[in-house]
Amino acid sequence: MNTPAPGLRPKNPCFSSGPCAKRPGYSLDNLKNAPLGRSHRAKAGKSRLKKSIDLTREILGVPADYLIGIVPASDTGAVEMALWSLLGARGVDMLAWESFGEGWVTDVAKQLKLKDARVIKAGYGDIADLAAVNFDNDVVFTWNGTTSGVKVPNGEWIKADREGLTICDATSAAFAQRLDWPKLDVVTFSWQKVLGGEAAHGMLILSPRAVQRLETYVPAWPLPKIFRMTNNGKLIKGIFDGETINTPSMLCVEDYIDALEWAKSIGGLDGLIKRADANLKAIADWAAKTPWVDFLAKHESIRSNTSVCLKIVDPAITAKPAEEQAAFVKKIPALLEAENVAYDIDGYRDAPPGLRIWCGATVETADVAALTHWLDWAFAKAKAA
Predict the structure, then answer these.
(1) Are residues 238 and 303 located together in one domain of the fold?
(2) 136 and 220 belong to one structural domain
């Protein structure tokens, strides 16, 4: 059967969940002020690093007494620094409902080998039992599950008078969802997610309670230099003023500043959230009238507005053996990439077979709306094959 292709194409086919689409109007010319060939410790380099920290604080609304540092190895590096430097002082509750949360569980259970670690899990599409969390313990969780499209509904479940620290991987939530700062002691994210920055750099944000832990607790295990945030029991404050532990890419720093300044120009965090919410709505409106697809997230209150994960629910497909279902789903992204309509929208390798469409603020709603017609086209073409 000949399935006619839609007439309107997305202007930008980049819907990857990381690295994510560059901001509208992006040009390499915007990076011309990067101090290339200069030391990052020189005045020119330090001023750009400090500017990126200051803009981050302004746009995200980070409290004045929280510290913001640029660290190596993307969000992964930032989370690892927190886990290895802070955990072990008391018990820990590990929350996991997708692959990245599972990864932090593995680190704590198999690498740090903490005996007093409790794991609270949920399957893809659901969320861990937040009411079961013991806040006398430290708590490690993802605000938004990048590979499941499931986020926490808000920060109300976190106790204000907690004894432990809350360590939050917010890499696909920052700049698109409102983080509840008083409830968070450690927050991490990377530049290549919601603002579409370049990879390899992570952000580590510490509350005064987290700083106190760093200065009063020494882990039982050795820490590599790249993880060390204290010297003789005192915080190395330069890390949080732009004096990075290792050499950053000043080109990537400039790229991040460009994204932050664009964010500020469209209304800051409110403008960013509005754009991501509009993108999610375009998917939701289409899914509501499309019988072959549904959200992986089981409830609207936990549905992500960035990493939107979808599953095939057409009975003719779901009746097939699991391997055949997976093979069918893979045809849809392949067809769309061949048409240069959508790149990198396969579901994550550890997730159930499905599609994952990035709907963060750098994506245009008109492109999401145009994509939905092509999704119908690709499904029909794959089914007819």
Answers:
(1) no
(2) yes
* Domain extent for 148: 30-264
Of 215, 245, 264, the domain-final residue = 264
Beta bridge partners, 187, equal 168, 205
Question: For the domain that residue 282 is a member of, what is the CATH number?
Answer: 3.90.1150.10
Q: What is the pLDDT of residues 82-132, one digit of tens each?
A: 999 999 999 999 999 999 999 999 999 999 999 999 999 999 999 999 999
Per-residue pLDDT reduced to its tens digit, 251-297? 999 999 999 999 999 999 999 999 999 999 999 999 999 999 999 99
Asked if the structure places residue 229 within a domain, the reply is yes
Contact predicate 223/229, CB 8 Å:
no
Q: Which residues, including other chains, have CB under 8 Å from residue 150's CB and lie 6 or more apart?
A: 97, 98, 124, 125, 126, 127, 144, 296, 297, 302, 303, 304, 309
Nearby residues of 319 by Cβ (< 8 Å), 6 or more positions away? none
The answer to the question of residue 188 being in a domain is yes
Q: Is residue 16 part of a domain?
A: no
Sequence-distant (≥ 6) Cβ neighbours of residue 304 within 8 angstroms:
144, 145, 149, 150, 151, 172, 280, 297
* Residue 2: pLDDT over 60: yes
pTM score of the predicted model: 0.97
Give the C-alpha distances (Å, rounded to integers) separating 60 from 1, 162, 165, 189: 50, 23, 20, 12
Residues 361 and 313 placed together within one structural domain of the fold: yes
For residue 365, give the H/E element and its range: helix 365-384
E strands, 122-176, in order: 138-142, 144-145, 150-151, 166-169
Q: Is the dihedral of CA 263, 265, 268, 270 positive or negative?
A: negative
- The token pair that represents 172 in the structure block: 């696909």
Counting Cα atoms < 13 Å in the Cβ hemisphere of 341 gives: 23
Domain final residue pick, 242, 264, 286: 264
Q: What is the dihedral of CA 247, 250, 256, 257, to 10 degrees?
A: 120
